[in-house]
Amino acid sequence: MNAHFFTYRQTARNIAAYLILAFLLVHCADHKPAKKPALKKTKVLATVAALPKQIKAPEDNPSSADKIALGRLLFFDPILSGNKDVACASCHHPSNGYAEFLDLSMGPNAKGFGSKRKFNTPNDIPFVKRNAQTIINTAFNGMDARGRYNPQLATMFWDDRAKSLEKQALEPIKAFEEMRGHGFAEEEILSVIMDRLKKISEYQQLFTAAFPSADPVTIENMGKAIAAFERSIITNNSRFDRYMRGESDAILISEKEGLALFKKVGCINCHNGPMFSDYKMHVIGVPENSKLPEIDKGFQDTFAFRTPSLRNLRFTAPYMHNGSFNTLERVLEFYEDIANNKSRNPNVPSEQFDPLIRELELSVKEMSLIISFLNTLNDDNFNKDIPQKVPSGLPVGGNIQL
After folding, report:
1. ∠ at Cα 241 (235, 243), nearest 5°?
2. Phi, psi of 251 (to 5 degrees)
3. Average confidence (pLDDT) over 262-283
4. Domain limits at 70?
5. Helix/strand/coil for 399
6. Which of 231, 262, 288 is the last residue of a domain?
7. Is the peptide bond between 318 and the residue preceding it cis, with omega within 30 degrees of 0?
8. Do residues 198 and 218 both lie within one domain?
9. Out of 85, 227, 253, 287, which could bridge 165 as a Cys pair, Cβ 3.0 to 4.6 Å?
10. Around Cβ 295, how many Cβ atoms within 10 Å?
11. pLDDT digit string (tens) for 177-208?
12. In total, how many domains does the chain have?
């Protein structure tokens, strides 16, 4: 009986000890600072999409057939240049996809077309500083991943120095190496052009039809007319666009694999939305072009340049802001170097590369599939009509004939 009694007492003590220990553990736990739940990093998923079937125009420049007709003639007429030898079409010709098959364009005091264009002798006018971007689809510039954009604030040029096609249209006319040339100051050239246009009766009639008013031939209306024409040059029915609208067989299986790789390796980080551009500035260290006498430091001297669209690459070689690469293979090899933390520009160490660019994971074996996908963005169904003549009577497109 005593043995049972002692066994009972020992068991009771053990239970009591366990209860006290449990109480202490709970009590201590209550006084520990509560751990904050780990915050999950949210990354916005970049997407691509078809271009819209309709375009938007600024509220103060609605499109009309008369504006487009006037803008088309102005676009091809070298009367807009200082020495009447260069037109907008000299460097943005429909035969070249409204771009140019040159790394850097030649403006005034030059002759010839495309790769055959040469400066006259003697010459002291430099090459145009940057590669001529295509006019095609600039109507959609600034479009975000959801297809939203404001044509009055649309980003233009490699360094985003102008907003809207209306403002962009006037800048090349004022630039010394693009259209102005010798003989006129930047502050006066637009007024000189207006005086010329007012002396041509056909232009007076065309401006009046497009902009009915007492004084229709103005600098502002010239910019609006050229912009209206440029806004009409679109390609929004590529095989990719049709695929995104539900035609599953519009692109091949290998091209679908290329699209998947395009997303996986990180190209989509910057080349997204319907225009395959985030329209932001990025530092990637493109090699300098030896034709330029000075280093091009880009946007606000940061070596950043705006992401170009990937649409219609078939028509827009050579590539990059200074035409450094002639083929898409060379472009992707350059990005492979970036993925391996290599810089091809001694002025831009890899530490300065944009963080999104440094996230690339690209290898040679993936390039052919990505290029096959990029070809689905080509669409040659754009207006290639060239006027037989322009109201000034000057050579259509400028001095592009040898």
Report:
1. 155
2. -125, 155
3. 96
4. 65-231
5. coil
6. 231
7. yes
8. yes
9. 227
10. 14
11. 999 999 999 999 999 999 999 999 999 999 99
12. 2
